[in-house]
Fold each of these.
Amino acid sequence: QKFGQYGMDKDSVYCHFRISDGDIIILLDADRKTFKSLGLGYGKDKSKVFCNCNQMELKDLDIESFETIKIKGYQGIPIAKDKNYFYAWDEALKDSNELKEFISEELSRK
């Protein structure tokens, strides 16, 4: 996988992004007590969502309902959703039609 992977110790949250130079990044803005890795390069804490080691700063992002989703037959860019939008990395897609369009474009590039 080429997606950010998260780890923790008693003090901090860390992220390793495999296609970067291999360094492990300390996520200074992550709340260690509430952080959890969601897989596919995403993680969240009580007040922020992270995508491949970067904080997602999107208007209307609903942290509580944010989760990753797997789409049968599609293994491209990781997809997530919340109660408002779908997300491809940190790009908000307003509805399922826009998501289908995005996936179709991704598949046509291969």
Amino acid sequence: QAEDGIRDLVRSRGLGDVYKRQAQGLAAMEGISVEPVDTNLVFFDVSGLGLTAEEFDRRLRPYGVRISVLGKYIARAVTHLDVTRALVEEALAIIGRVVKATNPVAPAAV
């Protein structure tokens, strides 16, 4: 698999933490379900947001974040070799704002 080869390149050493951070960040967001991650590809389901993957992608694009739409609710995020942890954190912050605007947190029970 190509992803296995990428992990073996000298310049990619340590990127496993970046891939995992991307998956952990997405999984922490209400309405997003993430599949286990072994490579730089993160597959996730946005059905919990009440949006299709296509609509979620459309809402992210104005902020410079792109995802691949693989099915009605299934999307993929790819972390390339030149993407740093700081860039992943920036993307997660943007995604988090879009999720929050889409799925506002209900007021706490009194």
Amino acid sequence: ARGESLYFATGSAKISKTEQTRLAVFCHHIKADSHVNKIVIEGYASTLGDKERNKTLSLNRSKATKEYLLGCGIEEEKIELVDYGSEFADKVEINRDVDRKVRIRIYRSR
């Protein structure tokens, strides 16, 4: 599976303009590839805040990304959401920015 990561501001599930631009290009490539049969959107959060809130935040990030992909014409049947919360977050404060993300994994049929 190949993929792409999108990054979010602290405590936010809003896709920034910069990330929207990256996502638009990504979406274009997905639509152009007839072999894409599954898209898994994995939501993550940093360790700031409580575990339950981070789980919800990671799910909201995944949902926002899914809505964007649906809006650009990706079929809903292909999309699966996974929310990890802060389960795999780096405990080092300096690395928190990279934990506030969704990772989009693309699976292709042969």
